[in-house]
Structure prediction request, 278 residues.
Amino acid sequence: MLVDAHAHLVTDDPAYPAAAAPARTLTAEQLLASLDAAGAGAAVAVQRAHVYGFDNSYVLDSARAHPDRLRAMCVIDGRAPDAAATVADLAARGASAIRLTAPGGNQHGGPPGTDWFAGPAARAVWAACADHGLSMCLHVYRWNRDEVLAEVPAVCRAFPGVPVVLDHVASVEADRPRPWPGADLLAALADLRQVHVKVTTLNFARLSAAGREPAELVAWLVATFGADRVLWGSDVTQTPGTHAEMLAAAHAAVAELSAADAAAVLGGTAARLYGLAA
Prediction:
């Protein structure tokens, strides 16, 4: 079973007002049609915070409308005083995962610090995730990668029951010559069994632009963490390209793996994490 673990849904339906006009749209039904064309599958609908902010209504409603094939990953402000209560509310509305990202963060940098995922309010979010059976996803940029990865072990040990997914290979710079910047810090987390790593089309695009093969990165991730802790997501509507092109790139990137490992990366790991039928 193929599972796209990182699909950014965007609709022009006025029932879901956008904070910023989206350049691209992809509804839940269009995503599922693309998966059907590829031989069926499922997906994790990841809140597009640049479009909808912290209003997670569309991903939640989409997951409720398609309970066998979609799961909702919601974005919240981990520093907010009521963040833990927000997690409880989202869980009651059907959320499967929480995603945190640095405030004001983008590829150009933002304020330093790890309070957004490791401060007192954010730790209450982790506790709420543990209480409600939700996983945690951390969006890591290149500019804050090192301080984030250095702090991850302490938070994981405080909440050992919460599965953790690091987005976009935690911004390890595999598009640069080895040793890849950040690879040592990421590999140091391999002993923490709750830590999983997501590889996306964003990583593949950077590698291809640098003349490198995405399969090299995927093989390294599987060798370091095991295929049962590596998962793939398209990043559709955020990274350029059609969903069909992203599916083709994913299959090419796992071509060097065994059939069992390839199946885990392309769907098995995500199915287990998010409670989707294999």
The beta strands are 2-7, 41-46, 70-75, 95-101, 135-139, 164-166, 195-200, 230-233. The chain has a mean pLDDT of 96.
